Amino acid sequence: MEPEVLQSEPGMPTPQYSGFWAKLANFFKFSQHGTNFRTETLAGFTIFMTMAYILVVNPLILSDAIFLQEPRDLFGEQVFATAVSAAIATLVMALAANYPFALAPGMGLNAFFAYSVVLTLGFDWRLALAAVLVEGIIFIILTFTNVRKQIVDAIPMTLKTATSVGIGMFIAYIGLAGDPATGGAGLIAASPVTKTTLGALGNPNALLALFGIALTTAFLVRRVRGALLWGILATAVLGWILGVTPWPRGIVGAPQFPVDLFGQAFAGLSMVSGTNWIDFVAVLLVFLFVDMFDTVGTLSGVGKRAGFLTETGELPRTNQALFADAVGTTAGAIVGTSTVTTFVESAAGVAEGGRTGFTALVTGLLFALAIFFVPLFEAIPAYATTPALVITGVLMMAGAADIRWADPAEAVPAFLTIFFIPLSFSIATGLSLGFIAYPLAKTFQGKAPRSHAGDLDFGGYFRGAVCVYDAALWHVGIKSDEEIGR
Questions:
Q1: Average model confidence (pLDDT) for the chain?
Q2: pLDDT average, residue stretch 3-32
Q3: 3-class secondary structure for 272-334?
Q4: Residues facing residue 342 across a β-bridge
Q5: Is the torsion defined by CA of 281, 284, 290, 292 positive or negative?
Q6: Domain spans of the chain, in order of start
């Protein structure tokens, strides 16, 4: 049913709706954000299309460690758990925070869960789920006590801007460097001599990705609404037609409820003992810090791109946004998946014009419906999402002009943040280095950060120390991002 649109008054930024649609538009504050149902819906579909890979990739990773008799015997249940946890968290973001941000089990953290915690450290997967559950509960407590909001607000505006730029480069890099063997574009490839190099342009995946980038660019410059989404669909369909990627093996499939996963995190809590509690706490801290800084970085970066930040650099309704990932992580652990976090692919929806929680509402509902359409979504190859990720990266680069490059105390921390987010493959790492560099650079300049009372603000140094400890955890008995194949 199409919303009934009444005649707009001259100068009105958005159409006027009637009845139910008017109430919905008012709830999501369409007039305040200058948006409409069509734009928000397209943005929601775009985010979902760029994130749909998680419905297959997350279960593939986790089912190597979470199984009953042999690896991947719980794959179907993992698909259900991934979709449900993403839907719950994204819907909370939509309804509680009114932001166009989507959440799902995070890449990197899922690999850490499977390959480091379970397969390397020897944790029972139920115990590992218990660590995720405790993390989620702690995050809920920290959100209500305002601690996480204070961390977000403490990020200097320079670093928030740099994080936005770094995220843009990061997601473009993800799109370009995907492994052709798993459906990626392969436009950037590993090299033993130069670390990275141009991939094989004769590869069909690379050619289709380049076609998609060109087509999406054409849509964008011609101001075609839904340019990113149409680019994804056109590239995928062309790949199917040319036989580069198999056609979907079906459209609808019966969902598999996670009967063997549901509630196992509670059983894992009983496995904490006097011999393993130190390892349990160490793993819990890694989940806590990496998820916290990934989420903080994404909210700040994408929020900056969307124009949500205030003049003082604060993100309104921060606690509500952070509450969404806390609830998602807790619910995810209960249904049997790893840490849920805000996805950088949300920037694709922002680039498409999404500005309210209705975008997230659409994405969340699509995740809920996805449990019935897994055969269709798993047929969309990764190279088809490359155009959307690259163009989003281009749009997010605009923030670089707002950084005061003439001031070394601002430029050096900003550059480190931008540089290390894509090249370390971690938002948390880039933001951590920026946190460490900023107060040091300001102190060298004679402008040490101070509190509102005028006292020296040692919070910046504390945050840097925390981040150093966080990074150390990855290397003391725990594999690094590169070693776990992140």
A1: 83
A2: 73
A3: CCCCCHHHHHHHHHHHHHHHHHHHHHHHHHHHHHHCCCCCCCCCCCHHHHHHHHHHHHHHHHH
A4: 103
A5: negative
A6: 33-473
